[in-house]
Amino acid sequence: MKKLISLTVSAALLLAPLAYTINAPALNLKVDAVSAASEEAPAATAKPAPKATAKPAPTPKATAKPAATPKATAKPAATPKATAKPAATPKATTAPAATAKPAATTAPAASAKATAKPAATAKPVATATPVTVHKDVYQDGVYVAYGDAYSKGTEGAKVTIKDGKIADIELLRTSPKIIDRNARENYSGVWAAYGLMKDRLMGKTRDGAAAVDAVSGATRTSNGWKLSVDRAFERSLAHQAADATYFNGVHMGVDPEAKYAVFATYEANKLTAVKLYPLSATGDFVDEKTYTAEQTAAIAAITPALLAKGASAQPVAGFEAETKAAVNAFWDAEQNASINNKAAYVDGFYSSYGTARSVGVERADVVIRNGKLVDVKLFRLGSNLIDRGATAYAEVVKANAPMTAKLLANGSYIANYNEKVDGISGATESSHGWNQAVERAFEKALKTPDEGQTFDGKFAGVDNQSKVMLLVDIDADQVTGIKLSLFGADGKLIADDKRTEEQKSLVDKLTAGLLASGVQAPDIAGQEALSAAAKAALTDALTNASKVQGTYKDGTFTAYGDAYDKGTNKADVTLRNGKIVNVALSRVGMNMVDLGKAAYAEVQKAIPVLTASFLAAGTREGAQDVDAVSGATSSSNALKAAVDRAYGKAEVTETDKAAYFDGIFIGASVDKTVNVMVTTKYNVPVTMAVYYLDDKGKVRYNLTDDELLVKYEIENTSNGKGLHKYGYRAAAFGANDAQKAISAKAVEAIKAALESAGK
Fold first, then answer.
1. Confidence at residue 118, expressed as pLDDT on a 0 to 100 scale
2. Other C-beta atoms lying within 10 Å of the C-beta of residue 252
3. d(CA 353, CA 347)
4. Are 49 and 65 spatial neighbours (Cβ–Cβ below 8 Å)?
5. Among candidates 192, 276, 206, which has minimal Cα distance to 237?
6. For residue 24, which phi and psi values (nearest 5 degrees)?
7. Residue 171: enclosing H or E segment and its boundaries?
8. pLDDT for res 136
9. Distance CA 754, CA 385 (A)
10. Which of 384, 626, 628, 744 is spaced 20 to 30 Å from 606 by Cα?
11. Distance from C-alpha of 176 to C-alpha of 168, rounded to nearest angstrom
């Protein structure tokens, strides 16, 4: 009889002998009120005023907030009603006039005494002192806030506050869809500002952050980040001001389906303006000049309803679907504007799994903002836990898009899931798995985590070289059952009834050892490699069940080593839980085509050796310790760099948020006739070299005058120290049609090279 034991996840991870670690510390979301008084000015009541002068333009408006009617703070959603309430206060001033009618002289005396008592009750001014003192008390946690919105989006900051200081910070530069952009998609002046501003803000108090200098060339963005940080501190206050509901300024929101963006302007807790913008399929603003008649009519009809009723606006006749999307967008803007944002989740990227089966499992990668699902990608993994993509069952492939749309329309996972109603016909099991994965991703995002370190259920785990698969049952952080399967030489699981007697015995011994001792199970003599694989598979399963988001995204990431005038080295790296589970290495020529057997003999020999070494190393750090292959040292080092850059692209939160990796990168035109080599330093392109290729991808040197002119223009418009002229939004040029055609191809190659260099 098999012995079942309770195996806690923490023990499994702490005792793992395979140097296999979960790649992210738990988010510190414990809410403890702490005082930053040691770093703040003693006169806490003066804080808002200095802050307003030190901060971007919107902040001074914050000092006007106390003028708002306190009642408005009780009804954020019904802002228009709040604007009506002040009308009641003038009536209150007429009421005392009525009480003045008692003409008795004693009455005034009595009323004088009565007015004296309020003076005594005015001592609650003393209670104002504790209230203002509380403004120096910030709660530890992670807070996300945004600056004022404008036509290109807005800035944001994800701030970890501890002991009244910035313990960690991720700076965001959002698209109209309010999802953080890749740094290189922003203005070039912003590229260097990420690192500079992060360094300046780290460790600062609220006042210290407000006094930080903006980065030259990115002033508006820097001030937007500072405003975001200040709002994050405001949200972390243990005691919110009773008369402050909204941040002054222009706040942006988008509905989960990205049909509309709303700009909502708040002044002194009142909604003063609303602008409604339709979004394109790519999540960008539709150019007003291209509005359809229907879009124009919808905007004209819905905008007044939003201004009058906000998130309570009723469907406008004839535009019911549009109104629903616009109201959702307004709600999002209102949440971004709310000082006391009540979202239960921390904004960001999260990934999780559904219930595992021997044939595979579903995974969902989601982005959450203000408690709503704003982006989701669904995957169907095979028994080796690698995405099957288009090779998955046909019905599952077809179900992906409609299920994605259904989840976005819902703005969350589907509660009380019913496979007949909510599932996609022909793929109900996968539909349920995707919904379950999204639900678990939301639980990972909770500000106040639920009890337990792992989800309950059945989770799969596979070692990174796909030798062993486990289906692990977990209940209340305890492993209650394990089913172990072996992979055959063909990469498929060996069916139970197809195992040899030796394999059956081995499976029984491995299973018993894991149940008895977890990842501390002793190796089976003569089967050390398989024993290690089984323990790695258990660690993988426990990580897949964890409620903590890892450091790296799962998936396949392509990156390159440094190039030279014969080509470059490429690595397609597949990661799961930060481990290398597959890697494809290749040597490509100047036309970016795999050279295969045409590559140098030493490189051909080195590729399988390095492939095995990277898989055996398994981690980012381990890959860099792999020995170079003799005779192919430069290619070995280039492939090691490519693997490291693949990890850089997979980071959930970039440790070094930059536009480009430093190095040398090449790209080719679509027709493979032009190659451009780009050198990046300080994370920006600084030099470029142009090569013209023959039909075999070789560099040719007999050039026309027009080709020489294009080459000269691109190669000689940089001093090698700053951003290259064509390193940002390159466009074709030329004095005649031939030059324009050649330069257009060169620009294609530049963009391809920059894509290779991009983080």
1. 38
2. 26
3. 19
4. no
5. 206
6. -155, 135
7. strand 165-174
8. 63
9. 32
10. 384
11. 25
Q: How many CB atoms lie within 10 A of CB 154?
A: 25
- Listed in sequence order, the residues at least 6 apart from 527 whose beta carbon sits closer than 8 Å to its beta carbon are 506
Average pLDDT over residues 594-623: 96
In the prediction, which pLDDT does 701 show? Answer: 94
CA-CA-CA-CA torsion sign (493, 497, 500, 506): positive
Computed from CA positions of residues 164, 168, 173, 177, in that sequence, does the dihedral angle turn out positive or negative? Answer: negative
Residue 609 near residue 626, CB atoms below 8 Å: no
For residues 4 and 568, what is the distance between their CA atoms, to the nearest angstrom? 53
- Quickly count: other Cβ atoms within 10 Å of residue 453's Cβ: 17
For residue 661 the two structure tokens come to 């990796």
pLDDT of residue 719: 87
Q: Encoding tokens for residue 95? A: 């009421």
How confident is the model at residue 89, as a pLDDT?
Answer: 37
Task: Give helix then strand counts, H and E, for the chain.
Answer: 23, 21
410-424 pLDDT per residue, tens: 999 999 999 899 999
Contacts with 633 (C-beta within 8 Å, 6 or more apart), sequence order: none
- Per-residue pLDDT of 718-743, as tens digits, reads 988 899 999 999 999 999 999 999 99
Phi, psi of 648 (to 5 degrees): -60, -35
Distance CA(656)–CA(268), nearest Å, equals 38
Report pLDDT digits (tens) over 562-606: 999 999 999 999 999 999 999 999 999 999 999 999 999 999 999
Q: Which residue has the tokens 């992060």?
A: 198
Picking from 382, 487, 372, the residue whose alpha carbon sits closest to that of residue 438 is 372
Q: What secondary structure, in 3-state letters, does 696-726 show? A: CCCEECCCCHHHHHHHHHHHCCCCCCCCCCC
Contact (Cβ atoms closer than 8 angstroms) between residue 65 and residue 244: yes
Q: What residue type is assigned to position 539 of the chain?
A: T
Q: How deeply is 377 buried, as exposed, middle or buried, from its count of CB atoms within 10 A (0-12, 13-18, 19+)? A: middle
Q: How confident is the model at residue 282 (pLDDT cuts 50, 70, 90)?
A: confident
- Contacts with 201 (C-beta within 8 Å, 6 or more apart), sequence order: 166, 169, 209, 212, 225, 226, 229
Measured from the Cβ of residue 378, the count of other Cβ atoms closer than 10 Å reads: 23
* The two structure tokens encoding residue 410: 């819902």
Residue 262 token pair? 């709303």
- Answer yes or no: are the C-beta atoms of 266 and 253 closer than 8 Å: no
d(CA 660, CA 191): 9
SS3 of 484, please?
strand
Measuring CA to CA, which residue among 542, 478, 386 is closest to residue 16? 542
Eight-state DSSP code of residue 181: P
Rg (C-alpha) for the chain, rounded Å, is: 31
The average confidence (pLDDT) of the chain is 85
Q: How many CB atoms lie within 10 A of CB 207?
A: 17
Amino acid letter at 553?
A: K
